[in-house]
UniProtKB/TrEMBL annotation:
Annotated family: Belongs to the oxygen-dependent FAD-linked oxidoreductase family.
Domain FAD-binding PCMH-type: 77-245
Keyword Oxidoreductase included in the entry's annotation: yes
Xref: SUPFAM superfamilies: FAD-binding/transporter-associated domain-like (SSF56176)
Keywords: FAD, Flavoprotein, Oxidoreductase
Record-given protein name: FAD-binding oxidoreductase
Originating species: Nocardia coubleae
Amino acid sequence: MSIRKVGRNLPSDLSRRHFLALGGGVAVASTLAACSAGAEGGTPAAGKDLRSAIRGRILLPGDEGFDLAARPWNSTIDQSVRAVAHIADADDAAALVRYAHSAGMSLAVQPIGHGASGAAEGTILVRTDQLDQLRIDAGARSARVGAGVSWNAVQAASAAANLTGAPGSSSAVSVAGYTLGGGLSWFGRKYGWAADNVKAFDVIDAQGRRLRATADTEADLYWALRGGGGDFALVTAIELELHPAPTLYGGRMLWPVQRAPEVLAAFRSVTGQAPNELTVWFSLFQFPKAPPMVGIDATYLGDAAEGSRLLRQFDDIGGRVSDTRSTMAFTALDSITTEPSTPTPSRHRAAFLADLDDAAVGKLLAEPVAPLLSVQIRHLGGALAEPSDSPASAISERYYIGFLGIQTKPDDAAAIQARSQKYLDALGPELIGRTPFTMLTPGQTARDAFSHDIIDRLREIKRARDPHGLFRSNYQVLD
Ligand SMILES: Cc1cc2nc3c(=O)[nH]c(=O)nc-3n(C[C@H](O)[C@H](O)[C@H](O)COP(=O)(O)OP(=O)(O)OC[C@H]3O[C@@H](n4cnc5c(N)ncnc54)[C@H](O)[C@@H]3O)c2cc1C
């Protein structure tokens, strides 16, 4: 994790140390416990013939390295799988699909497991790390991205050609997992959902056939995969549209929480008139062993002079303790929010938020953030609200609200959940909308992410394309 202007960045440093401490210790302990329970708990192993069916590495329960390979990134999630398959390439992926089909087994494709929900129980877990191809075509402004590639690699390769993709707050997530779920990007207001930037998917379908899904071929698959998740096929590569990346300005400002009413008022005002190049997120923080804070995270697709002019209302708010804003590289986006890049035992909840009226502001500021680590409001609108023929379709809500807590002990999960729910209940159904698919959390289903029309169409495609339920995504559309 890179942190700029370290000397002025006390709360971010605190959060980093906290994440690292928890990610290193608690994560390992709780996941080892979960995995060993799963292995002993009797999920039958896949047949040994699986090893001869594919060329990639197969790990079965009891094999050295199995527990580690089966562990999801979010270590609070228990997933007891039959086997872990590191597929070697697209042909291997096809062989694995044919094997699973003939053996009556299901596949859970999980590049990293950021979104693991427990649904992979009893499946063959597919790891895509060897599908690591990445080719940038600067002239065509496109990238061909293997299913094992994360955003940090795409951003680095794109930046070398003065281009950018549409990553979110953490470039540690896989391009495939994030994009198949829609993908809410820093640059979404300008370029739409990450899924809106997909030109083609190379897939293995449930019959083991290699297909290419575009707007003109396998159009139903192309539609479903642009935001409906990975329930319909095994994606081996994605072709993405990239965008010009001349200059980027951004960073984080922090104040003591007593300034929250002023910061929120400025946030409402700035987001009320922001051009699509400007994205501003508001957060309330309770970093461990630190006073509560309020923060603004921002990116501006343009130069520092115009970016700081657009954000100047925040300069009038006194007491600022940290400001990391500067011209920044397109590869340095993660330094804004300093989210954990190592496995972290966290719980989250999120929803679209119709508006931030006075009543909503009052409810948000009424109570302390603890036991949560943060309450974050992201500004939406712009291209995210434009009509798009995909499951990640036009979002009319102006904002997104997300709650995050770190689970240091089992009881924390209930406390985090209860606190998040309290905020949601206070804001009420007239303001709280659906959950972005990539932000679903265990206990929710795909229905929580989609309108009736969209979930019905996704289900129809699932039944037609995968009638035996061979693919099992973290959040399945038939649930
Ligand atoms: C720190 C952090 C920050 C985040 N920030 C954002 C953000 O700003 N915006 C946002 O939208 N999301 C964000 N997310 C959520 C993230 O996008 C989802 O968790 C996403 O699912 C991660 O993808 P993954 O591959 O890493 O996870 P995994 O759990 O490994 O995969 C997720 C799902 O993707 C599908 N899938 C993945 N690859 C394939 C494939 N090759 N074929 C078929 N299906 C496949 C599977 O159905 C799987 O269930 C964040 C998550 C974290 C942990």
